[in-house]
Amino acid sequence: MKGKLYLIISISIMLFATVACHKSNEIPATGEPFYRANSLKFFFTDGTNKDLLNLRNNPILPVTFEYTFQAPALPGPADTMRYNYMGMEIKYDTETKMYAWNTGINGKSGIQTHEVYIAVNESDIDTLKAYFSYIMGDVIPNGPYAIVEKLYYNGILITEEKMNSESGIQEFTNKRIFIKKENGATKISFNQYQLK
After folding, report:
1. How far is CA 187 from the centre of its chain?
2. Which pTM does this prediction carry?
3. Domain that holds residue 149
């Protein structure tokens, strides 16, 4: 009888220790805002396949925002290959021979979903929604790291972050997103020739 009681107590202690250890590794849902850098490239064209981000042709300057849209200043004439503004960047991409836009992915620590808006102009506003998971101490020592499990643009899944078996690092499944703005509609592709 004492042996069974000892076994039950031992198993209970091990279960309690396992649960307590698991709880200590959970990411607290503090809601603290974060800005996740990434290598995604967004390309924008119109109905005639004109590069809408070309800095020499009165470009559109997409802006990511959560609550209030603020229009950015247009770049000066010297800024023709790269332009940084409000935490975003437009840069010439030599592979596609188009200009690409990059923005950080916003989130709130420990919260699994977060939605922001992308203003292409004052009347054309899109949605970027991220689904996150968190790991401790992998990329940032002793701190949480947000993995973008899924990223949606206007409700369309555009990319996911997966572990690359060769490099051993998290990478996006699609790194180039092509967005065509035509007659008030937005079309999305992962190949620049599919939207022509």
Report:
1. 19
2. 0.81
3. 29-189
Instruction: Please report, in angstroms and rounded to a whole number, the separation of the first and last CA atoms in the chain.
Output: 79
188: its two tokens = 């999305």
Q: Residue 106: name the closest of 85, 82, 87 by CA.
A: 87
Spatial distance between the Cα atoms of 174 and 150, rounded to a whole number of angstroms:
11
4 found inside a domain: no
Per-residue pLDDT 10s for the chain (196 aa) are: 555 444 444 444 444 443 333 344 567 788 888 989 899 999 999 988 899 998 877 678 999 999 999 888 877 766 678 888 998 999 999 999 999 999 999 999 899 999 999 998 888 999 999 999 988 765 555 667 889 999 999 999 999 998 887 877 788 999 999 999 998 899 999 987 776 5
Instruction: Supply the DSSP symbol for 76.
Output: P
Establish if 9 belongs to a structural domain: no
Does a structural domain hold residue 117?
A: yes
Tally of structural domains, the chain: 1
Q: Classify residue 170: in a domain, yes or no.
A: yes
CB 190 within 8 A of CB 174: yes
Q: Hey, which bits of the chain come out as E strands?
A: 33-36, 41-46, 63-65, 82-85, 88-93, 98-102, 105-108, 113-121, 124-136, 144-153, 156-159, 161-163, 170-172, 176-182, 185-189
Could you tell me which of 35, 81, 42 has the C-alpha nearest to residue 175?
A: 42
